[in-house]
Input
Amino acid sequence: MSHFRPFARPVLAFALATLATAATAAPAVYEIDPAHTFPSFEADHMGLSTWRGKFNDSRGEITLDKAAGSGSVKVTVDVASIDFGLEAMNEKARSAELFDAAKYPQATYAGTLVEFRNGAPTKARGELTLHGVTRPVELRIERFKCMPHPLNQRDWCGADASATFRRDEFGIDAGKEYGFDMNVTLRIQVEATRKP
Output
């Protein structure tokens, strides 16, 4: 058995190095920057025009393992922060006829980052909870980039994502009887900085 001893140390060293690498390769956690993250949407107005609004208050986290090609995202939006650029429309949107912000103050999206290419996800598969209803929604990630933050040098990532869903499937069907298209385009611009 003594002829195996010369191999013992290299094998042990390799095993320890592998364990150390695995231990340090945990997914990184990024905190979403609310000053640079504004979920927005586009909705039909009787086929005449497209109304566009955004939410001014959002927060959340992203986990990312670039090497493994995996990650997750969770965004929480304060529905009362809706902003069409017209206060009368903001009040209408907050009312029970549309978002009913008093009863359903938050909307959330939670998903898994998938289909990585060159270390960047191209989709998120998850669920949108809106107006008290939770349904699957897949986000298309059109752009994803990470770089050192110019102020603190921590990893800093940004993305543009979008999806289309029917608002009546979430119980928001105002205007349907007048011919409003129920399809809504959701767009999320997001920036997040890696936690220390």
The CA atoms of residues 32 and 71 lie 14 Å apart. The longest strand covers residues 133-148.
